[in-house]
Amino acid sequence: MKAITYPRYGGPEVLQLKEVPSPTPKDKEVLVKVHAASVNPLDWHLMRGTPYLVRLISGLFRPKVKILGADIAGTVEAVGSQVTQFKAGDEVYGEVSKTGFAEYSCVQEKLLAHKPATITFEMAAAIPVAALTALQGLRDHGNIQPGQQVLINGASGGVGTFAVQIAKAFGAEVTGVCSTRNVETARAIGADHVIDYKLEDFTQNGKQYDLILDMVANYTAAEYKGSLSPGGNCVVVGFSTASHMMKIMLASSKKAQAHKQNILTFTAKPNQADLIFLNSLLETGKVVPVIDRSYPLAQTAEAIAYLEEGHAQGKILISIEK
What we know:
Elements: E1 2-5, E2 16-19, E3 29-39, H1 41-48, H2 55-58, E4 71-79, E5 91-95, E6 104-108, E7 112-114, H3 121-125, H4 128-141, E8 149-153, H5 158-169, E9 173-178, H6 183-188, E10 193-196, E11 209-214, H7 221-226, E12 228-236, H8 242-249, H9 254-258, E13 262-265, H10 272-283, E14 291-296, H11 300-309, E15 315-319
């Protein structure tokens, strides 16, 4: 099968389209013929091996697993002996730890869901990492409630476009923060208010929010605290630098605790139950994946380079021939 491999760490130039052996599913795995995948910041962090802490998991000097890609959508080709929920021919989507940028990929059964008939493979491939991050950040860590004032910083990106729509589905009043070129995108997906960060700093406008979900992570803990209502939650997903992330992780300051405010970070956990929950939002049209552009498998390097520029509106897809 064809796959995008990276034998060493580096920029997009290290990615190579190669013929590699097709995988064989283990007892609890499903072999998926991949029709579409999508690109995430995780891919370029693994590709570059930065921050260097990621190498403790991915390999100190060279990557252990030499195929990138976490989000996939496709058709079940074969199943392991203990798989009970899927059969050959089923249309599915889900998250693999890696190996998504390939014609075939093996996925644990518990990390897959049936693809809603109302969406395409390309739309399904956009969902897993970004939508699960948005859902778990808002619901599980942010404790979102109907009627709350919720601010999404990075509202036009991969996670942000899902977060705006999911927050609206939970009944929140949503403020999206993005650049000038993305203001209309944020409005189109349902943001009640949009702040152009080039014209206004939300931490300096005197407004407070019950919940902040931040994918940009370009503020200090004190700035977040000043923009939170008493008892509010700030969930930081992205990070600008490794040192800044460490500061946020240590930011359970006494002042924040005095107002019962929480500032926290997390990493989304892939699971089938949340994908099924997202299916209900997708099938009713409450959530619609926002797609910036699509690249063929052979141009995965260009796709990741575009993502690194930081200007994508929604998700970037990798299209693989059916």
